[in-house]
Amino acid sequence: MAKPIVDGLEHDLEGRAAVVRLNVMSEVGSRAARQYGVRSMPTLIIFDGDGNIVETSVGVPNRKSVVTQVIGLAE
């Protein structure tokens, strides 16, 4: 359900931000989920350029809202 939206985010943010998908069933994904307190999927975490969490949302993301927020961070 969220895959087409995340695909769109990758397209919209190409060259401006990295979109990283993690499978929480993998070792790396499982560690990241524990580190960032992910309890439900999908979970979207937006980081600023310094690696600080700016936003965390659970559920299918709103593509337009995410793009607007990320582009605002980059300016």
How are the secondary structure elements laid out?
Elements: H1 3-13, H2 27-36, E1 43-47, E2 53-58, H3 63-74
Antiparallel strand pairs: 1-2
Task: Give a brief rundown of this model.
The chain is of the alpha+beta class.
Q: What this model shows, in words?
A:
The chain has one domain: Glutaredoxin. The chain contains 3 helices and 2 strands. A two-stranded antiparallel ribbon has the order 1-2. The termini are far apart. The model has no long low-confidence stretch (mean pLDDT 93). The chain is an alpha+beta fold and 75 residues long. Helix 1 (3-13) runs parallel beside helix 3 (63-74).
Features:
single chain; 75 residues; alpha+beta; Glutaredoxin; two-stranded antiparallel ribbon; 3 helices
Structure classification: alpha+beta
Q: Strand portion, in percent?
A: 5-15%
- Spatially, the strands of the biggest sheet line up as 1-2
Alpha-carbon Rg, integer: 12 Å
